[in-house]
Amino acid sequence: MTISTKRILYTLFFLIFFIIGPFLLLYATGYRLNTQKFKIEKTGSLIVESFPKNADIFLNDKPIKQKTPAKLRYLLPNEYLLRVSKGGFYGWEKRVRVQSNLATFEKSIILIENNSPVLLYEGEITLLSPIQEKKAFLFIEKDEEVQHLKLFKAIDASQSLIKTFQKNSTITIEEWSFNKEYAVVSEYTQNIANHFLLHVQTGEIQNITSATGKFFEKIRFDALNGSILYGLRSNVIYQIDSRDFTTQAVLSDSVQDFTARGTSFYYTSTEGTRSLLKKTKLLGQEDAKTVMLPKFSQYSIRLVRDNILLVTDSIDHKIFLMKTEIFDSKNAAEIENNIILQETAMEVRWPKDQNEMLLINTFEIREFSPANKEVRLIARLGEEIQNVHRAINGHFMVYKIRDTIKISNVSFPDKNTYTLLNKVDSAQIFIYDHGTVFSPHRSTAFVAGTISGKRGIFALTLHR
Questions:
Q1: CB contact at 8 A, 54 and 79
Q2: What is the C-alpha separation between 403 and 424, in angstroms, rounded?
Q3: Among the residues of 80-139, which ranges form H helices?
Q4: Radius of gyration of the chain (CA)
Q5: pTM of the model
């Protein structure tokens, strides 16, 4: 090879290096040619994790070789349709945006199991009342002659008889103690109420009406002391000590509804054409503090947190979430500052273990966050929504529409709503979240009703 030929080759080599080298460097540092925009752009990455693991990944309907958990590198900045699927589970999808030089995270993808319900207990079930903290629920089974109140323990699927009632009476679980150790079971027969105190752990049940010699219209537990109850009878509030069922009159007023926390007693009442919200100290000498309610109506009251009251207009379904400090307000502005929320809702759900409150109306479900005082629409449907419950640590909602039970992802229900059960009649639902350190999203739906012609209590695994 001549010297001139070598010079030409060297020159060509350096020319190729200086032309291609920068492109190789750009490629190595994550730059790619965007053929749609016809320009070079810095890529981003997408990190995908799912529960359970080892699920298939699709990006814009193209399969990815990696399975979850995975880091998808060198993606051009764009919006992608991400789908995750696994055998035996419903698919998951979401539109995600990948940005230049940034990592996009989808690390909480929870796949819902696609399986069939298991019949745990056969019979006509008319009531289902969960005891989430005790991993159990109470239920009423009705036969041709009587009604049976029974306790079902989800942890081992065992059931035990507590009490038998008349067939023509209406049985309700009126109230739970704060620690779910006790429940007030009420039996209504021809407008006469008999109230019973149930000790859940032992199954012992005592007749409050017989023990006190009084027919109470309503009974409530003290929010701090599970052995103390309060009963309303003819506009008089009685304190009931459940250890010996001694009673003491502690308040006389036109009481509609009430709740108690220690010595603090909150209640709604009427004076002429006014409806009032009041707070008083039981057995104390101070006068009741009063807040005027917006209009004359029938109001109920609940202490939903230690210092937060939920007042509901039972006729117009207006709800008022307010701080207990409202009773110390000196002017209208301070009253307004102590009102956290004013909304319309047919039903409100705010479990102790959830930060957000569900506001349920006939055709829509909304979520309220007390932290930032924002109301967010979760679902608006063209059919009546029933039996709404949170599931899997609040990430999902289970609800009934006509004869189907569905589950929706709370964050983006438009893409991730699945039909769990069809041909369901008169269903009551209880969600049992029983996660562990190794399986934090474990959850089971218990359904009482008729499914495909079979009556009883069914279990459906949502995530294991």
A1: no
A2: 5
A3: none
A4: 30
A5: 0.84
